[in-house]
Fold these 4 entries.
Entry 1:
Amino acid sequence: MSSSSRLAGLDTLRALAIVLVFMNHYLLFVSEGGAFGFWGEIGWVGVDLFFALSGYLIGNQIFAALRSEHGFSLPRFYARRFLRTLPSFYAVLALYYLWPAFRGESALLPLWKFLTFTQNINLTPGTAFSHAWSLCVEEQFYVLLPAVALLIAACRRSLQWAWLAVAASVIVGMLVRATLWDEYVQVPRGGLGYYKYIYYASWCRFDELVAGVALALLKNHHPSAWARLTAYGNRNLLAGIVSTALMFYVFLDDHYGYWVTVFGYPALAASFSLLLVAALSPGSALYKLRVPGAASLALWSYAIYLLHKQLCILLRPHLQDLGYGPDSFMAILFSIAVSVATGWLLYRWVETPFMRLRARYVPTHHA
């Protein structure tokens, strides 16, 4: 999306997502005393917000192209997606494999798992570059969604089949989480089994991306319903804030519980979907709000996500030697500054050149 066509509301949500993820990772891997408090504890939901955003944006691209004069080109879609996501990912992956000091003492999985985006399958927490699990989920989704969309579009009554696929995704996700919870997690506080077989698993998280796809389907194929929905932007914003706050409470209270595991993720995705609708509603405060720096953070968020966690881990002992403990204001401020600066560098020197290549050789129009 070009800078001129970017929506401030979506940028605000994307910036919020990377801030939440940063706070959670800092709390888990750097802090000694609960840095960022409540927001550090709940910050993992930033990934879920990224999922909802990705589902909507990719779904909107596909459905709009399917309805366009030129139609949808699967090779063009894959070329544009991979030129957007792979160069920065491979650049950071090279740091982990070619510069041992960067990964520290953390175990590194075989390279093929990263190259095939299957690292998240049965992933053990704490391995090097473990936060790339969410990128695996998204890349798998980017590969599957357009193929499924084309298959459904070729069917008679394709719109009904599309909504059936959305409903089936949510139901199957809940059934799979229920089954895996019974098999691996039946202990009071979750533990290894919860993360390894549920939290990181694509088949347990796809329904969150599908929530965004459902919004795109509604926008592109039910324009009157979409118009009615977006006419009440501030109501959607209020409902989204209230429901999101409720889900935060539910997850903090019983994150690893059976009912929260089964129903919590689609409920959280639904809450984020209300925020997405508000961000897309011209009359809402979220649509109109211009948060200073949010557009830049949104633009650099992917690069920041790739680098920030390991950089903060590496900075900690050096800052400690200078007398700045990990929970001190100066240590946190410096870690934020380095994360943003290196994210910008990765965006500027790796992502941007490939985006220019994409614009030149794989433009948005469909030939």
Note: The chain has a mean pLDDT of 94.
Entry 2:
Amino acid sequence: MSTTTLLVRQDQLATTRLHTANDDAPLADGQVRVRVDQFALTANNITYAAMGEMLQYWQFYPSGEAGWGIVPVWGFGTVVQSQCADVAVGERLYGYWPMADQAVLSPHRITPAGFADGAPHRASLHAVYNQYLRAAADPFYRTDNEDVQALLRPLFVTSWLIDDFLDDQQFFGARRMLLSSASSKTAYGTAFQLAQRDGIEVIGLTSPGNVAFCESLGCYDRVVTYEALEAEIDGATPSVYIDFAGSVGLRQRIHAHFSGLAYSCAVGASHVQDLGGAGQLPGPRPVMFFAPAQVKKRNADWGAQGLGQRLVGAWNHFSTTVQAPPAPWLTVQHHAGPEATRALFTRMLAGSGDARAGHIATLQAA
């Protein structure tokens, strides 16, 4: 038996290679082998790679090769071998996988809903990323929209948590929200939630080519191009900047123009070199949003069941909207095989592609 994995150079993300290793060792007692059937590849995964060292994303699936990493992805897998009495062959799982065609997990804390991976190297990593959910017991799961779940579920959860965090902080006294990279899926999800709140103005910032698309989403009060933001938006009004782009230059312009900036929230991080020097910017220091921290807070506030109920309700509303006829917002594209997945990662890193497209990949042979 062999495993094929896409490896990424940690200090030069555009450098990738496919690695196939023979693995004839039997599973240890308590382990399961999962075929990684399909996963989403989005700008979110590029952020995982860009922030891999800072936020420990490289540590979930160590490559074993110095300087090379495995980018984690969200999607679905099927148990194909099991030495764990409580996890059956054939079970469908949703979770956080390596960009590979299979993965070996060590289930512990097993419940009817799922389990955590008990591999020793993951013990200190955040629990949100260590959970594997049984599709048969997952309230989010529907057999007819696995693609949408893989693509949007983790992004929407982040979006929902951003909106919830801002509401919990009373929007830092501001009523205007500025969202960069407004055409991105996580920005859209955030705008979708913010638009449901009374008295909040949601402004999308984007490139000229994406203005019409962003306006068609129906959740931005205004859409403004990056080039025109100083001319079209009053800088004195108290505002919150939610940065999905990670652009150094844009962040500098936002902080310079918006004298009323109440909070600066960094979500995307395609350009991470500026974060360390953020103290040199006018106004509030940019703060990286870490979704698991808000999950931990809300678990304490509401309990896991209370948080889950809120998320499922919001997800059902959102996922129905993005697929609504006659013009669904999302168009799913499939990419099968190692080379196709590698080429897709390269394109995603370059930031090219249709804003309406959602990419589902698998390293399983076409």
Note: The longest helix spans residues 291-322.
Entry 3:
Amino acid sequence: MSLDILRGTAVLGILLMSIQSFSMPSSAYFHPLSYENLEGLNLYAWLFSHVFASEKFMAILAMLFGAGIIMISQKARKEHMRSSGLQYRRLFVLFLIGIFHAYLLWYGDLLVAFSICGFFMFAFRSKSKAYLFRAGIIFLVLGSALKLLLAYSIPLWEQGQFQLLESELWSPSREEINYEIGHYTDTWERQMLVRVPAAFNMQTKVFLSEIFWRVSGLMLLGMAFYKKGVFTAKQSKKYLSKMGIYGMGLGLPLVVGGVLLNFHNRWDFEMSYFYFSQFNYWGSVLMALGYIGLIVLFCKFSTRSLIARSLSYVGRMSLTTYLMQSVICTYVFYGHGFGLFGDLDRSAQVVAVLLLWVFQIAFSTIWLHYFNFGPFEWIWRSISYGELQRIKKEN
């Protein structure tokens, strides 16, 4: 049950960041001053989401995905199935779901990246805990180093290339912001003119330079910690307490330090994007490990409380919950629905997140009262196993 609770916490927590991408121009996700002034409640909303959510819950999901690769392999062996065949079908189906999700709904999809990284990381499933841990750190270091090398290479760039990147990612003009808002608040077909290039860029240039290394490293760490019995609550309370204390004690100051440096340097593009982002890059990994330690420690004390049961229901329907967030948010913010893109400030976004959390917890609880799987989990499992799974519970 601890795995479901972790998964439920992560898929709900990730909405604290993705809501910004759903509801605001893309530059606002990276540079909070590019679209609005951070004042009053908006400043506190951004600080809370960045310090406690940015990259942290994605990191937990990636580690759990790595753990899931080993779990599925173990289950396949017990059922005398070819582990590789099942895994590759499972990953391919997830890849297709992610492609539809990214191009038809929201460019910020994670499923494509998870499926591709999972395809390569599957080869590591039989390695020792120590090997997986070392390999995971190496992948993370490579991801960090690539960004720093890119920064050091700026003097070699062609004239105007740096300014173009800054305009695209950091400080778009009012015309560019209005262009993005105008398309997302228009018809679904018009949205495609902005969403398709953004999704393609995420799945090619950004994936190869950043996402692959980080997600792969986190998956390998997840495999290592699964083999250590962390995710299944087999580790001692002392071990989990240390994991929580050290993870938060080291990670939180790193993240906060990065925030202070950004404001001190007035969010200079080169310093913030290439250098100060390293603080959250590493701090988020440590904080994610801290969260895992504290959540699993909580599970050691209670899995029957209302909070634990509610989170476990969401975790059992994590794919449906994740996709439902996109369906609901795009309808609220994009032109085929209410068209509120660019209208909600950050404090109002937090209220929207809380409302959606309540709805998704209630929906998962009611759905699993009558069914064994969430609707997308059922589709995923049925195609992966090559036969329809029993979805309805027997009376």
Note: The mean pLDDT is 94.
Entry 4:
Amino acid sequence: MQTDTAFQPQDPGEAGFDAGALAAAVAFAQGHDSPFPRDILKHLEAGYFEPAPDNEVLGRTASRGDPNGLILRRGRLVASWGDTRQADMTFSVAKSYLAMLAGIALGDGLIDSLESRISDSVAHEAFHSDQNRPITWRMILEQTSEWEGTLFGKADRIDRGRDLKREGAGPKGIDRAMQTPGTYWEYNDVRVNALSLALLERFRRPLPEVFAERITSPIGSSADFTWEGYRTSFVDIDGTKIQSVSGGGHWGGGVITHAEDQARIGQLMLQDGVWGGRRLLPEGWVKASTTACALNKDYGLLWWLNGNGRYPSASRESFLAQGAGGNYIWIDPAHDLVATFRWLDPAAMPEMLRLVTASLKG
């Protein structure tokens, strides 16, 4: 396995780990492969997220590889397993990347305030119905927007009633009454795609281009990082057709990258948005992103939190980007630790975090 040169290896003992216990944690990860099959396209077309016709795949997919991952402490590599340069789909990890772009837009003055209505600065019709006009940037970042409509061929109804604890095993797409924006929390991919569209309307440039310029290039990410949308998600921006990217791989598209690039993102968040002495994210944005939503204490601004002990053995300061199939970036400020897990069985995640945390010596 070829390690990332930005993260110099360090002996686990010198980094404050019990080497044997850390090795056991790595072996645990290697032994708990994701239940997702290798053929992701076939899995989606078989109706994992929802039945036909709502499951139509509109963007690129990629077959997945084997479980892999790495663990950093104080920016040094203390453990890795599998092929950490295996570029795979990340699913909803991309949502957290959209939050980072929202922070940049706020810092650049493209967003006046998180309390501003999106419709005040975005002319697209998606934000000008009676239901959608009051939605603020904070609401859409916290998944409390109750945005209603059809975007790029996908209706928000598809994800109404979605329960992540029963993902792939329970009904959703219920025809419930819409609530006032800001009063109801629901995990909904179409609404996140609406955020992506709103950010594109503000930046007036492809979001992957902005993300590369402002985030991935400064932190030294590889050329393996790609971010796409759907064949239906091209919009006109100043006379040019630009693809609006998706916030996951639910219907294809989204981010394809590897564990090492994801670890860089995690390290940037751990360092409060500063890399090599240069501030990449606005001051205070990491704190804002990891402040619990009033309607869901496990969620911030498109980042998952642990303040309520969602993962009982991990520090309460921990926060995560996570995607379907067992794709995680775990940031633990209490222990100066970042880890990426690719294709780890989600059912094994609590134990994985317990094993890593327990392997720390005092």
Note: The longest helix spans residues 93-107.
